[in-house]
Amino acid sequence: MNKKILKKYIKNFINESLSIEPQIEKARKIIYNDQAMKSFFENLSSTLGIKYTQYVDSKIHIYVGRDLAGEGTHTLEGNIVFSYLDDNNAEKKKSWNFAEIAIDKLPQNKKVFDNEGKERSIYQIYNTYAVKLELGALMYDLLIEYISTNNGVLISDRHDVSDDAVTVWEKYMQRSDVQRAQIDVDLDYDHKLTAGLENTTKDYWHDDLLQSKAISYAKEKYDDKHMWLETPFAKGLYKKDSDFRVKSALESDEKFILTFGDESEEEY
Questions:
Q1: In which domain, by residue range, is 241 found?
Q2: Does any domain span residue 159?
Q3: How far apart are the C-alpha atoms of 26 and 264, rounded to whole Å?
Q4: Structural domain count of the chain
Q5: Which stretches in the chain have pLDDT values below 70?
């Protein structure tokens, strides 16, 4: 392979890995593959101890919104709805989660300025459950798009970020369709940890949050804790309306049924 072709190949590979479009197409290929979906349902039925005899429906139902059963929590819940025949051959509908990402909306006094100087609310991931059918990338993008419609930004868990999640957040730092708002550090949380650090908005305390992950990441990657500002964990992610690519793609696809729930304005 000559240098010109190699350079083009590398460029295309990088662009694809930093774009959501390949993830959308990957999901479509999986969902439209009846044999793959049948195998998935059979394995799921076996795991749950359900008698499964016939694959019927492979539509994906996705709800993004507040978990009304929770106490101030929000979830992204994806449900696969399919049918099976029981012992009496009576058709029954069953619904199983294929992904759930739980988030917290921080108190109303916690805000951040976006890149246009607009104040936004802050939502924090606190748990990610099993993601099946390789739809994790779509779920995170949908979550960012939903939060963006509610004038918010998404931040990582302040305490624990898995190695897989670190990779995801690193990619978001390079995505041109994802905006990154700067989050500051709570200098009073741990004086030893934050010694020598400074905030970008010294007179604005609403975006001061725990940044232990950002600081430890900066030490490990750059050997300099003062580089914490440049890490993915010191950023709040959001999208502009024109970049809601996942929502637009799924709404126009008959295999997906997508609903964005209403966001309550009540204080937490």
A1: 3-260
A2: yes
A3: 33
A4: 1
A5: 1-18, 48-59, 67-74, 80-97, 130, 263-268
